[in-house]
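Troubleshooting log. The previous structure file for this entry was overwritten by mistake, so regenerating from the original sequence record. Sequence copied from the archived sheet and checked twice against the printout by T.R.
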Amino acid sequence: MPEPVVTISAAYGAGGSVVAPALAERLGWPFIDRMVTADLSSDAAGLATPSTEGLVKGEVTPPSRLLAGLARSAGVAAMTPPMQPLDTDVELRELTESALRPVIAGGAAVVLGRAAAVVLAGRARTLHVRLHGPEERRIVQAARLENIDEAHARVRMAETDRARNLFVRRLYRRDPEDASLYQLVIDSTLFPLDSVINLLADSVALTLSTS
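Regenerated output below.
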């Protein structure tokens, strides 16, 4: 029987960058973080300051550099020339899913991003979670988490949500905002993030430990 897994898909400002690693620490499970999900346009070029909720600097690449950036993020730079794009979406999916092999094989983990709710949709003992919330409250929360002003957070939200949605749609032809992908959808702007972590820990105990 496989060990339990929690996948967390989070919109910008929903607190995924805080909730997911804290839940992994609480449970004593490995944490698998997001990989680079580079924007498919250069519109976000001005967002060069560090970001925890949004796209980091390395994620903001022109279209011709998208696949090469993903390859470098997955630790295969030595095999791939710095600016050489991969040939197919099949190879890109392989990079996306490479870190998920231990959980596919049956190991426990908390996974943030990586379209994991789609990739692990048929896996037993897996709880799929979506963190979301109204745009205005996500902007306020993101500004607090990232120590930026709300105007900057608003721009980041538009770019980040668009990039990550395009990423999942392109590789898996699924909408990451489709509630049917998840067993639990939480407005994580409505409660303190510590309470969200507690709720998820309790949900794991109730839904996974006895399955």
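The longest strand covers residues 126-132. Archived copy saved in two places this time.
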